[in-house]
Amino acid sequence: MDDAGSPGSLRRKIGICRIVVVVLCLIIVALVIALGVVASRSSELAQTAKAAYESQSCSAGNNLNLDPPEVVPPFHDLTSNEIKSLKKFLYGQKDLNLVGAADIASNKSYIFAMELHVPNKKDTLNFLDKSAPAPIREAYVVIFRGDKPAPVVEEYIVGPLPNPTNKKAQKTQPFLYRPWTSPEIVGAVAVMHREINSKVSKILLESYGGKLGNCKENCLEFQMANPMSPSVTDEPKRRKQWFWLTPIVEFWSLHPLDFLVLMDLTSNKVEDYFIDKIFYGDKVFSSLDDLMNAYDNGAVTKTKIPFPENTKNVYSSMNRRGKLFPDEPLLPPTEYEPSGKRYSINGRHIKYMGWDFDVRMSTISGPQLFDIRYNNERIVYELSLQELAAFYSSASPAHRFSDYVDSVGLIGARVRSLVSGGDCPSHSTYLSTYHVLEGSEEPVLVDRAFCVFEHNTGKPLRRHLSSQGPSKFYEGMMDIVLTVRTIATVVNYDYIMDFIFHQNGAIEVQVISTGYILTSFSVPAADNYGFRLRDHITGNLHHHMFHYKVDMDIHGTENRFEILNIVPTKVDNSEWSIKSDSKYSCTKMVRNVVNSEKDAALKFDFDKPNYLTFYNKDFKSSSEVPRAYRLMTKGMSKQLFEEGSGQEPSVSWARYQVAVTKYNETERRSSSMYAIWDAADPVVNFQSFIDDNDSIKDEDQVTWITMGIHHIPHMEDFPVTPTVGLDLSFLLIPNNYFDEDPAMGSGDAIRIEPNDQQDVEKGIKVDTYGKSEPKCKPRQSSFLSDAKMNPGSIFDQPTGEIVI
Fold first, then answer.
1. Structurally, how many domains does the chain consist of?
2. Which residues contact 800 (CB under 8 A, 6 or more apart)?
3. Which of 653, 700, 646, 654 has the alpha carbon at shortest distance from 678?
């Protein structure tokens, strides 16, 4: 035997180790190969499964082309290239003295906003209907001239596009009326930080448990509350703005504090801004020094509000909590398109079931639809949002004067990218838009500003079941519609705006408010203005108002407005009664063609029900009645503020539920971006549209529609207001316009009848008009994965500035 330590023994051991290593390597290689085969096979199976799924997925269709057409049509929003060429041209105009977006300031000249200038209606109709040349494309441009000795807002029409060569000056506007701007708000907040931290930081810490400005926790910040319009202060040359101190939590509007600051922002220089008033402890102070003295001397009631816990369970958070349901994470019902998309989109032109129209987004006033036709007959030339407004009532000075007219914040620019599966059905098509906004040199893209989707409302459009007698049948169809939706978030409130196209020729416009309510700190008088929702929180009564423009062209532009009054009457009943003088009460229809604008400005009287109809006198049915459309409003409310007082003149359109005026190119909008400031002398005075009392009979008419709802917040509005019951709408409904319901031609119907009318046991025949059972599955949405890759499509990129 060899010694264990001998060379021979060591060689044998080394040899055995080598064999073991080789065997182990072979095993590892085999495992790697096996795993590779399995992985490859798994990948193949996954690819096969994916391919199988996709082969069964319903096709999206090839009828969508969302890019701008080569020749941009009259209603199409400014394209990115047009915006760039406009900026290049304007920066080359030495008289404008413009600075770039990175250098904007209140005392500089810079571009505030820019959007399409919708061309003259007459020229556009000549192009659409008479093969005339296309109207020139132009832009409407707003420039803040803070650089001038007497600052002013300048407006221009610039064109022609895409290569502008001239600018046409429009009427200038007072600099004090300009919308809120980032340089102004950032400057005001900086002044408040500096002054308050140096003089009364002790009050903030002891009263609210927080700090203002740079902090890691328990942070406080100022939010804009509302402007003090010159019509309220009776100071025509001053620009003042309330700011409201709140903790930085989700969401600040449900955490009101009783520390309010009124800033004077009249100057075009930030260094001249100053604190005008302070509200604390239900008292008003003229300076921070006065407040500090009163606080130290016990001359004011000290507030003690603990800083809220910034957790997912805080009452103002929208994180899921409470009694959770359902018990299992089950998916909700989902719509899909088993035959692909039944609508087409070319640029911003949409076609669906006989409908076709153009859609665009005004940066200032929001969504607009143009040239709405049914079976190639124009029904509406323009259907557009004009204004959103909310007027509050409160014991708090900042909230008492919170009379918001939202164009000041540029409604269209408040639209952010819509969320698939949350804001819109997952099978929607999304339309983008570009904006020109201060602080951004490049065009600002909102890639999902509108969603377009077909929707089964779950309600029959029509149906009837005849189950007895010699003619048994069932025929019905669901009300399947096309919806164009956009949602604007204006600070705390979200406004869902839908344009809905029914297959029977009816157009529905719906708006719903949701989002966070505006609350105020409870003081003894606060109970008059709303419920107390927490120990120190009052939900303030407010009135939402929505204004729309509807330029109907029923069989041309020469239209009549006729009111069909439904009036009580008594008719002779002696023939049917034993009494010779018997009368029977009923109602009758009295037709009234409205001749003038003043007579067409309507304040609804529930004691006098009516139909509002619009038609061309030269187009009648076979029975000689006008082929008309009816306006039906389902969202009326009464404006209760005294006419001519406070901020009310800025929204004089809200005095009327409906008004009809003669078309006038100088009366394009019922409101303006200046309206929140200009009540003393409105830039756009809607009342003047009516006061000139033009004749409207057989004229090109415009109908102005106001909807509204009074809201007294309640506990269930926490954390945000549900949409249930808050939907407001108006409809344009055919009224003898067609010889019968045009949806009788729809293939979405179902008909069932017996094979033998005398013996139903012999079976039935079902006619689905060529439709078959779906053979495909819903397409999978890539929205969530796309959003994770591009979060900026949902949230604004941080800029270090206060965003208004």
1. 3
2. none
3. 646
Other CB atoms within 10 A of residue 306 CB: 9
Residues 170, 186 within the same domain: no
Report angle CA 747, 750, 752 to the nearest 5 degrees. Answer: 145
Are residues 351 and 313 part of one domain? no
- For residue 295, what are its two tokens? 């606080």
Considering the domain architecture, whether residues 380 and 447 belong to the same structural domain is answered as yes
Whether 249 and 388 map to the same domain: the answer is no
- Whole-number Å distance between alpha carbons of 334 and 347: 28
Of 145, 161, 177, the domain-final residue = 177
Longest dimension (CA), the chain: 146
Dump pLDDT digits (tens) for 236-277: 899 999 999 999 999 999 999 999 999 999 999 999 999 999
313 and 368 part of one domain: no
Q: What is the CATH number of the domain that holds 247?
A: 3.10.450.40
Contact residues for 386 (Cβ-Cβ < 8 A; gap 6+): 365, 547, 548, 549, 653, 669, 670, 671, 704
Give domain status of residue 2, yes or no: no
Local confidence band at 795 (pLDDT 50, 70, 90 cut-offs):
low
Contacts of 430 (CB under 8 A, 6+ apart): 417, 418, 420, 424, 447, 448, 449, 450, 451, 452
Any bridge partners for residue 434, and if so which? 445
In this structure, is residue 351 part of a structural domain? yes
For 459, the 3-state DSSP assignment is strand
Mean pLDDT taken over the chain: 91
Question: How far apart, in whole angstroms, are the C-alpha atoms of residue 609 and residue 594?
Answer: 16
Q: Nearest Cα to 443, choosing from 167, 783, 88?
A: 88
Using the predicted structure, report yes or no on whether residue 289 has a pLDDT greater than 70.
yes
β-pairing verdict for 64-65 and 343-346: parallel
Do residues 205 and 133 both lie within one domain?
no
Provide the annotated active-site residues.
Answer: 406, 493
Indicate the residue among 177, 208, 238 that finishes a domain.
177
Instruction: Return the DSSP state at 152.
Output: E
pLDDT of residue 80: 97
Q: Are residues 427 and 453 in the same domain?
A: yes
Helix (H) or strand (E) holding 115: strand 109-117
Q: Give 357's contacts (C-beta < 8 A, 6+ positions apart).
A: 349, 350, 369, 370, 371, 372, 373
Where b means 16+ CB within 10 Å and e means fewer, 247-276 reads bbbbbbbbbbbbbbbbbbbbbbebeebebb
Domain assignment present for 85: yes
In a domain, 37, yes or no: no
Rounded distance, CA 733 to CA 745, Å? 18
Query: Tokens 């003669």 map to which residue?
Result: 662
Domain co-membership, 460 together with 585: yes
Residue whose entry in the numeric block shows the structure tokens 């309330």: 242
Measure Cα distances from 111 to 97, 102, 239 in Å. 11, 12, 21
391: β partners: 403, 543
Domain range spanning residue 172? 80-177
| 160 Rama class: left (phi>0) / alpha (psi -120 to 50) / beta | beta
